[in-house]
Amino acid sequence: MAIHFYGSDDVPYGCFSNFSDHGLDLDGHWWPTSEHYFQAQKFAGTRHADLIRRARTPLRAAELGRDRSKPLRRDWERVKDEVMRRAVAAKFAAHDDIRATLLSTGDEEIVEDTGTDHYWGRGRTGTGKNRLGRILVRARGRFRAELAAAAGAGGERDAGDRLFGGRDR
Fold first, then answer.
1. Which of 25, 30, 33, 52 is nearest to 41 (CA)?
2. What is the C-alpha to C-alpha distance for residues 123 and 114, in angstroms, rounded to an integer?
3. Which residues neighbour 59 within 8 Å (Cβ) at sequence distance 6 or greater?
4. Long-range CB contacts (< 8 A, 24+ apart) of 14-23?
5. HEC string for 21-32
6. Per residue of the chain (169 residues), what is the pLDDT tens digit?
7. Could you tell me if 38 and 81 are in contact, meaning their C-beta atoms sit under 8 angstroms apart?
8. How far apart are CA 81 and CA 49, in angstroms?
9. What's the whole-model pTM score?
């Protein structure tokens, strides 16, 4: 049975949304949400990227990131999945509580349940690429493998502390 998510306030899986209030430290800056990071990377190295990083809300960051009066970086289509992977990995590594939620999903498929996005979500017809859901599944697998490796090296309880700092940051 697939796990569907969309709104950042949905319990318990709203934390999977890029709009969830879980900041991350990446590329030498603090980002209020993974949405801020993702949208800013469309304009990396510009003043517009910094404006997006400082946006008051993830919705405003998304609006600024979708502003087509500003030119996207030339390689955006090639790098956007990697940008999302980095944002998701940093977000879940930084927060014990949401990492535990991600790990608690077992082997279930994770689906961004949006009818408007056929690339990152399932799309209106349910046949979208669901790239965000797939990236979450991949991150879950990596965290699970890291915990297993650390547990084999010295005890399961200490493994999370060694890998992730043992606290919410």
1. 52
2. 6
3. 19
4. 15/95, 15/97, 15/98, 15/101, 15/102, 16/102, 16/110, 16/112, 16/132, 16/136, 17/112, 18/58, 18/87, 18/132, 19/58, 19/59, 19/62, 20/98, 22/91, 22/94, 22/95, 22/98, 23/91, 23/94
5. CCCEEECCEEEC
6. 899 999 999 999 999 999 999 999 999 999 999 999 999 999 999 999 999 999 999 999 999 999 999 999 999 999 999 999 999 999 999 999 999 999 999 999 999 999 999 999 999 999 999 999 999 999 999 999 999 999 888 755 555 554 565 445 4
7. no
8. 18
9. 0.90
Per the structure block, which two tokens stand in for 8? 């950042």
- 53 by DSSP, 3-state: which? helix
Residue 146 token pair: 């890291």
